[in-house]
Specification:
Distance between the termini: 63 Å
Number of helices: 16
Radius of gyration: 27 Å
């Protein structure tokens, strides 16, 4: 029996002369992990609808649990009702359920119609499509945690840079030490990687941990760490940026300016799809992501449609770009929040096409068009060639933040803007410091040469964002230069201290002050993703695997995970110079196409299953 057929059998019990049927319309939604549907009823009649778009009340459970609740003869209707999860959690849900049951001649004498003690505040009503988010119905299935095994992970090969390999291997060891099972009271639905910062999981950290974790996905599904955020989504679409991993409680009330952000879930999920082709996951996560984007548009925008956040919500706690803003937006439009919204709707539009959820096309296209126009016209300063936070009076903050480079991950961006932004990345007066790229420009009054957390500190997530933006617009030489500088600084600090750090100093080869130690968190991106993608040079560009070959020494990656099931060994032989034609040894268990680039040359290679050598010229 399907959910639809179960509900159709239920409404067959409807009698027009039943005096217990309400005169006004009630809509009850029912959601299982696979299906969702609603019953709309009043004295005028009853009907089943194949969605929960307009449902006032939601019941989550398995099909068997819902069938028991709606069975004509149930020993205890109360027990059956307690087995499902009704949302919103009003103190009078027993009474609301009795309205439904009585309307279809289903006995419910054992339900308690007295409102329970309730100290408030009342919950928000459900917001479509959060009510389709199937993660909220999942229950954790115990799974063992894998242990670190170097032989099961991709192997970095860099003959003349053993420090890169040591850094890479240590990052994986630390990552596997931070794998966790959900605590019984948390409501979490998946094993996860813990940021190991405090007793919480963090949205900003976890997104970036999936971006290096994708290379170890054959051993542990790092992307499913995000499932615990989706499972914690509120009825109105809100997802807290920090969730207690023992209780499952949102650490912040939703309307607190610090409560959520940055808005990067859709970007992380699209990146995962590019590496795996997992369209089923896209289908499943889309309702949660779309509902979250709608919540942000409702509660994080100014009247002009631009987005705001605060220091904590942006993830860059103590930057001085907006005065006294760790916990307040101060009325400013924030460049990163607005650009991340543009990135989110762009990625959601792509997902909607990929999984054929076209009902949101118009809404997303309008949002994308408006946000990109706003960023170009309202946040760009022609005089200095940079994007800035915008004050309530329309003037710009004069503090240049790395946050502005989120623009390079959106499209379309005027190429003249891209060119001028790149000049700042090359300028020693702003972002081209001994360790690239400081999060607050060196020409700001509060720039801290030791990092000062986000007053100039070098952080893995923002450096990786800059590299991805440069790749998107084809500036591969600059991306390589920044990546090489960053990894070599991180590797040298690792050799001196024996560990990874939360952030690094921009003027010294040293940890930032302050900075947490043993911090694989997002610093795994600096030790794993950036070496693979920008030093070895293996990265996905759109749907194409590119090998951007720059190192003259023997280098490559063994056990590279390609798509859903493929595994490839890539080795480039040593050359006299980076401009010499490379010789590539490739072993694969699945055929694929590779675009090899070296110097000013490009070759498209069709690689068949097995082992092959390609001498390029």
């Amino acid at each position: 029996m399907s959910l639809i057929s179960l509900l159709q059998a239920t409404i067959a019990r409807f009698r027009a002369d039943n005096p217990l049927i309400p005169s006004n319309i009630f809509i009850f939604g029912f959601v299982t992990s696979d299906e969702s549907a609603s019953v709309r009823f009043s004295q005028a009649g009853a009907a089943v609808e194949p969605n929960v778009k307009e449902a006032d009340y939601l019941l989550y459970g398995t099909l068997a649990e819902i069938a028991a609740l709606l069975a004509p003869h149930t020993p205890s209707r109360k027990a059956a009702f307690d087995a499902v999860d009704m949302r919103p959690a009003y103190p009078f849900n027993d009474y609301l359920m009795s309205i439904f049951l009585n309307s279809f001649d289903l006995s419910c004498a054992d339900l308690d119609y007295t409102a329970k003690r309730f100290d408030g505040p009342y919950p928000f009503p459900p917001r479509y499509p959060a009510n389709e988010n199937s993660y909220r119905t999942l229950r954790y299935t115990p799974e063992p945690l894998p242990i670190y095994d170097r032989a099961q992970l991709p192997e970095l090969v860099a003959d003349e840079h053993p420090e890169w390999v040591e850094l890479y291997d240590f990052a994986w060891q630390l990552a596997f030490k931070n794998l966790r099972r959900p605590e019984p009271a948390s409501g979490f639905v998946s094993n996860f990687i813990d940021p190991a910062f405090n007793a919480s999981i963090f949205m900003w950290d976890t997104v970036f941990m999936t971006l290096f974790g994708r290379y170890g996905r054959r051993v542990f599904p790092f992307i499913r760490s995000l499932d615990n955020f989706y499972a914690s989504q509120h009825d109105d679409g809100f997802i807290c940026r920090e969730i207690n991993s023992f209780t499952g409680a949102s650490v912040f009330q939703s309307l607190d300016p610090r409560s959520t952000g940055p808005n990067l879930f859709a970007w992380a999920e699209r990146e995962h799809y590019r590496h795996t082709g997992d369209s089923e996951r896209l289908r499943r996560v889309f309702p949660a992501l779309m509902a979250y984007q709608r919540w942000l548009r409702d509660w994080r925008t100014h009247p002009d449609g631009s987005y705001w956040t605060c220091g904590w919500g942006s993830g860059m706690d103590n930057q001085t770009r907006v005065p006294a803003s760790e916990w307040s937006h101060r009325g400013y439009t924030w460049v990163d929040a607005t650009m991340q919204a543009a990135l989110s709707v762009e990625n959601l539009s792509w997902m909607a096409v990929k999984i054929q959820r076209r009902e949101f096309d118009q809404e997303l296209a309008a949002d994308s068009e408006y946000l990109n126009a706003y960023i170009t016209k309202k946040l760009w300063d022609e005089a200095t060639g940079f994007y800035y936070d915008r004050a309530p009076d329309g003037t710009f903050s004069r503090v240049k933040s790395i946050a502005a480079f989120w623009r390079l991950l959106t499209s379309p961006v005027p190429l003249t803007h891209v060119a001028r932004m790149l000049r700042h990345l090359e300028d020693p007066a702003t972002f081209n410091r001994p360790h690239r790229v400081p999060t607050q420009a060196a020409d700001s009054d509060s720039y801290n040469p030791h990092g000062g957390y986000w007053l100039g500190g070098i952080w893995a997530p923002t450096n990786y964002m800059v590299l991805c933006g440069l790749s998107q617009y084809g500036h591969h030489d600059l991306a390589y230069a920044i990546a090489r500088n960053h990894v070599e600084n991180v590797a040298q600090v690792f050799r001196h201290t024996g560990t990874l750090w939360e952030n690094y100093a921009p003027e010294f080869t040293a940890p930032g002050k302050p900075a947490g130690r043993d911090f694989v968190g997002w610093t795994g991106v600096s030790a794993i993703s950036i070496p693979i993608e920008y030093l070895i040079g293996l990265r996905l560009v759109q749907a194409e695997l590119v090998w951007d070959i720059r190192l003259p020494e023997r280098h490559g990656v063994r056990r590279y995970p390609l798509g859903a099931t493929g595994t490839v060994d890539f080795i480039c032989e040593a050359r006299a110079s980076a401009d010499d034609p490379p010789t590539l040894h490739i072993r694969t268990d699945e055929p694929f196409t590779l675009r090899a680039r070296w110097g000013q040359n490009t070759r498209l290679l069709s690689v068949e299953a097995g082992a092959a050598t390609f001498t390029l010229a």
